[in-house]
Write a structure and sequence with these properties.
- Pfam families: HTH_1, LysR_substrate.
- Residues 1-59 form the HTH lysR-type domain.
- Keywords: DNA-binding, Transcription, Transcription regulation.
- The protein folds into two domains: 3-83, Arc Repressor Mutant, subunit A (Orthogonal Bundle), CATH 1.10.10; 90-281, D-Maltodextrin-Binding Protein, domain 2, CATH 3.40.190.290.
- The protein is built from nine helices and eleven strands.
- The protein has helices at 4-16, 19-26, 30-44, 60-83, 105-117, 206-215, 224-227, 259-273, 276-280; strands spanning 49-52, 55-58, 92-98, 121-127, 141-146, 154-168, 178-183, 196-202, 220-223, 233-235, 242-251.
């Protein structure tokens, strides 16, 4: 099955003459470009580009496809321009999804700045761990904590985030180092081998583990950006933060012509940079 975004990847390679140039243009990694190009060629059982010592050249079939792909791109741009013909000020609705763990006061302060800048644009915030589909237009933009963004999306890595083991201050273990452990179903981090752990509960949800630690049920590994601001929680001695994942801003490559998405994608990374240290947790 052919997809519009496969054509966009093809166009990027045709214009830049290289996989790396296309990857930089689209904001994805090299393997994603190669994979999408291979999928497009496989769907038509044909070669569209030949690799040379200096890059990629279009085959005869690739040259024929290029003009049609440009026409499709222009029509897509025209559709977005038509939908955006509501004046210079942005209006309508921008639907954004992010997980509950990221939807705290600090993140909301950045979203409020965007809202203040665009008062006629309504933000529809879907705060959920469900992987709502950008491709199926369930949402316009996704902010996700992940180490492997979906290959068909483009966007920008905002930062790494770190986690450490936290417990309520009044429940710090004594000399016997006994500790109730609240896990996510996996093995405890290596430094916890120094403690006499009792598996008190398995709580897959990050926000659920945070609430359990706050209630005094035990200790758990938590993102530093969630636990560190809470005065009643402390990091277990000898347990330094470890990199747990990445935070990404993601959207569909075909949406680049949407003024609303372009505006948010331009605003958010710079605004997030001011609070990046909070989420990195170092």
């Amino acid at each position: 099955m052919r997809h519009l975004d496969d054509l966009l990847y093809f166009l990027a390679v045709a214009r830049s003459g290289s996989i790396s140039g296309a990857a930089d243009q689209l904001g994805v990694n090299h393997s994603t470009v190669s994979r999408r190009l291979a999928a497009l060629e496989a769907s038509g059982d044909t070669r569209l580009l030949d690799r040379t010592a200096t890059g990629y050249n279009l085959t005869r079939q690739g040259q024929r496809l290029l003009s049609h792909a440009i026409a499709v791109e222009q029509h897509w741009q025209a559709i977005n321009a038509l939908l955006d013909e509501e004046g210079e000020r942005l209006s309508g609705t921008l639907t954004l999804t992010l997980p509950p763990a990221l939807a705290g006061r600090t993140m909301m302060s950045v979203l409020k700045r965007f809202q203040d800048t665009n008062p006629d644009l309504r933000l529809n915030l879907v705060v959920s761990n469900d992987l709502l589909s950008v491709t199926r237009q369930e949402v316009d933009i996704a902010i996700r904590a992940t180490v492997k963004p979906a290959h068909h999306l483009v966007g920008r890595k905002l930062c790494d985030y770190h986690a450490a083991c936290y417990v309520r201050r009044d429940l710090l273990p004594g000399p016997d180092r006994r500790l109730d452990w609240l896990g996510d179903g996996g093995e405890p981090p290596a430094p916890m081998a120094d403690y006499a752990l009792r598996q008190a509960a398995i709580i897959p949800s990050t926000t659920g583990r945070l609430a359990a630690v706050q209630s005094g049920m035990g200790a758990a590994e938590l993102p530093c950006f969630l636990a560190a601001p809470l005065g009643e929680l402390v990091r277990l001695p000898g347990h330094e933060p470890r990199r747990q994942g990445e935070i990404w801003l993601l959207y569909h490559p075909g949406y680049k012509q949407s003024r609303k998405i372009r505006a948010f994608a331009s605003f958010f990374p710079d605004a997030f940079a001011a609070i990046r240290h909070t989420f990195e947790g170092l």
